[in-house]
Amino acid sequence: MQLSRRELVKWMSAGGIALSMSRLGLAGQAGFADRETLPGRHTWNPAVNGAGRVDGVAKVTGAKLYASDFRAADLPGWPANTSHALLVRAPDATHVFIGLDLARLTGALKPSVVVTAADLERINSRVPEFYTGDLFCPAGKTPLYLGQPVALLLFEQFDAFDRARLALRDGTFVKFGEETGPVAAPNYGAYRFTRVAGATPDTPDVYSPILAGWVSPGRLQNSALPVWSPLAKETRPDYGKAAILGDKIRAELDASDPSRLLLDREFETQSVDPMFLEPECGLAWFDSGSGKLELVLGVQSPYEAAESIAHLLGEARAPFKPKRINAQFAYVGGGFGGRDHTPFILYVALAAMFLPGRPVRLAHDRYQQFQGGIKRHPIKMRSRIGVDRASGKIVAFAADHVLDGGGLANFSPNVATVAATAAIGIYDVPKVDVTTVALHTRGVTAGSMRGYGTLQTMTALEVLVDEVARALPLDPIEFRRRNALRPEGRTMTGNPYSVSVRTTEILDKLEAHPIWQRRKLEKAYAQQGGTLVGTGVACVTKDYGTGADCSLGRVEIDPEGRIAIFCDHVEMGNGIGTALANRVGAYLGGVADEVAVAQVGGFDALALVTSGDPYTMDQKSQDAAARNPRWVPSISSATSASIGAHVGTHAAAEAARVIFRFGLWPAALDLWRIAPSDPRAGEWEKARWTNGQLVLSGLTPLSLPALAARAHARNFATGAIAHGFSRWAWSRARFPVFGQQWTADIDALAVRRGGGTFERIDRASVKFPPTDNNRIGTVYTSMCGTLVRVEIARATGALRIAKAYSVFECGQALVPEVVLGQAQGGFAMGVGYALLETLPPYEGGPGNGQWNLGQYLVARGSDLPLRDLEIEMLQPLTPDEPPKGMAEVVMIPIVPALLNAIFDATGHRFQSLPVTQSTLKGVLA
Questions:
Q1: Strand boundaries in 822-922, DSSP class E
Q2: What is the 3 state secondary structure string of 72-109?
Q3: Of 135, 560, 704, 789, which is most buried by a Cβ count within 10 Å?
Q4: Whole-angstrom Cα distance, residue 106 to residue 898?
């Protein structure tokens, strides 16, 4: 089979620029394109047995995979020498920026080019809407935020760059004038979520966001925070109803009622860095002769990155407008959300445009990553809860969240809404009112990060729930069980989950575990010495998906039975390549020989088009657009929100199903000499793969190579390309395939016969998820519960996690070992967040450019129960249960479980993070 990796080019037009995108290859000479693809069964690979990763060998043997690995000399056709760029950021956001003093850079240390805001205005560059704001702070203005870029210094030689970087590290060369105070800017979003349930669980809600739509207060008030009162003069009718009902819930929580336990608590979480192993990096080369801009990037959102760069330069004046942009995408050395829609890519492109003819590398060191990288939102939360003392049931809940979004909006509105809709966790609460606002501040930009707001609000909730249970008093697990949302129950936005809900099963596991059963014995035994012992529990849920997720997949099989897979999702430590190989292998009977990820080209045959915003379009517009058989609500989405297994593998799996049904199955019938009229010809769903052979009762097993050879010989289906779109449900369409009607959870399909080319098959009908689904807070969810036992030295406050147990469910685990690895990593991140990590938000924080790992503490092996951490993954409820996203949920309960264990040990309830050794020592003194 002639693979078409070299032809994986998708041509688009953006401001008159031809745009193509592909996955970056491993460094090599003649075999460059061949070596870039993840190896399959024809090289030693533990993934063949389902027990390893297709990228494992390449990673542990040091192959060039990541953007930071590459230099110009590694890339065929590029000039041999690499130049370097230094992005200069403002360490002050309260004084007027007046320029740079580069006098200390003398002789060879002088940069060849200095790019400032004036240069961007001169060339007529444009800022993509998502990144609205000055790419460089202009002289004479106060920086919008700490760490805002002010200039880009370009050096032709590495030695000059390296010495200059060290000479400029203290930031004092960035000059400021008079003090103005921080720049005031509108908040990024403010929302109110109110639900009043019906009289019984089975009656309709009185009010809910899914019935009435999402609402925001008027934004014309002259105040930093929104005015939530329905009496505000700017109040709109849709908001007014929610506000009136919400205020009634709050009045009920304020009322004195001896039959109810009422608690009012505040909780605060901190800013932290994603701390991915590889700081952001990119390589670019503008060939002024051909007008081509080449880029090597490592991001979570390849499609968006390429389009943003095209927009940036789409109306630039000559010679700063490229004729063509080719973006290649490398592996990502850790993402955790911090490389989803990152502005870093724009500066990589600008570096090349201002130093034409020379490849330029822009790479953060750890100081720069702390100064400019996206952070987790600090959130201040006030929560009020009312519980009926007799039944132990929650009757009402209200909360107010204030998020610090930092200097640019990024995903702050989305994080705020996800945090708010997660505020009642696993519980069924009939009356809920939650307000949330994301503020602009002068802090380093906050955006998407593992846990995505849920980590913060569910930590506050689970600590509050623990306090409620002890105050009633009631066993903490029993209290959770009494209040757990039923599988058919409604969330706080008013919709039920569409997937399995296994909260009770997880609570039962927690309750039966020895850590919980022995908690009193361990505490009593410890009291004989100088150590305090405590046991904590937490149980949470986390949505996965964004409400506008896309999946692109292409699968091919050659006459020898070799399988190749291509998809648009990104490898960032999530094992997407191995998940793809295993999910496709379930349909085609073999591990893929080649897996190519982070590809947005290579799907040309579908000829997809899109329009509008999938999050805000109305049903009429969607119905009209859907009449075009090539139209989809969105073409490609970022790898984020734990969607790798659920979304990233979906289209490839559907493509593999087409190949089996219309390629390998007809080939099997041909080899078995079964006529189309034979009833067995329709039993393709009963066939099973066993040891690489297709088996059907009473018939001779057939090998994959034999089936592939016959499929090619008979011109059956040997390749398929598919696209799917999910808005809390998959698009579904019907296609005429080989004279039959084929219905699947996709909206676009192309098929290859034998050794031919791919041909698009126009859908006969399609059903996209309704636009009203945009009102849903979440439909897809996973559950996780955690127990921890801590030991605290009374004299020093030193804390040791003695034992821990996490139990979770994730539907069908495509690669169980990778899933367990995600759970272990999530545990470590949870420990760091709860006990160690913190960044000051403003002056003195990372925006000053002086932070590194000497000040910022992350969890190390000595902080973790390496030999006493037990992870249990529940088996799927049914053999065909789809995979769920789980990489975020496994981190969340670690944090409140630790806080609850600390309370159990010390009797002190901490309401802010992190709880460090020094704070513990202060409480115990």
A1: 869-874
A2: HHHCCCCCCCCEEEEEEECCCCCEEEEEECCCCCCHHH
A3: 789
A4: 53
